[in-house]
Design a protein that fits this description.
Layout lengths: L7 H7 L2 H9 L1 H10 L23 H22 L17 H27 L3 H41 L4 E6 L6 E6 L1
Antiparallel strand pairs: 1-2
């Protein structure tokens, strides 16, 4: 059976698509397609049969073979249009990104994130500003008073430590001086 080319409109006019889908899913269709796609020897023309239809529209195996033929042709066209892998030009390699770009982009992102977070925090506390004023003044007084007390205590402690350290580190010197007469030479010893 030779396949004659049909246009898509002729095929859609001739076929009911639900029957074709059912036919293609059927196991016998596979056998029929295998048998119908085999080349058959051409029959000698008979003069007794003058009207042989070239396109039998009601033969389901012929229509299934036709659809398979169309799919094969479309597949061949789509694969022939693509160039083989070895013939495709390779894209140029992207230049490497310098390390300083990554460092400064990370710095910019973290700075922008911190500024955004600070703005969000200010926006959240803006409504409570009048109520927090006294609390903030009290907190500031406590912090300033505590810092002043700590500085005064540190100063006093530093003086006490300096005094005790000076006494501990000061050497004990004893000196014994003796003279044996009114105009005599004096002599002595120094002990530490």
């Amino acid at each position: 059976m030779t396949l004659t080319p049909y246009s898509y409109t002729e095929i859609s006019d001739l076929l009911d698509h639900t029957d074709i889908c059912r036919l293609l899913d059927d196991d016998t269709t596979t056998r029929l397609l295998g048998a119908s796609n085999q080349p058959t020897p051409a029959a000698p023309p008979t003069e007794t049969d003058p009207a042989v239809p070239a396109r039998p529209a009601n033969d389901a195996a012929y229509m299934a073979a036709l659809w398979q033929h169309i799919r094969d042709r479309e597949q061949k066209k789509s694969t022939a249009a693509q160039a083989p892998v070895w013939a495709r030009p390779t894209p140029p390699a992207a230049p490497a990104v310098p390390a300083w770009v990554w460092r400064y982009s990370a710095l910019a992102l973290s700075t922008g994130g911190a500024i955004g977070l600070a703005g969000w925090g200010i926006g959240q506390t803006a409504a409570w500003g009048p109520y927090l004023e006294e609390a903030l003044y009290a907190l500031a007084a406590v912090v300033i008073g505590g810092a002043a007390c700590a500085m005064a205590a540190a100063s006093v402690l530093r003086k006490l430590i300096g005094t005790f350290r000076a006494r501990l580190e000061r050497p004990q010197i004893t000196q014994n001086i003796t003279a044996h007469g009114f105009m005599s030479r004096a002599g002595g010893t120094i002990n530490q």
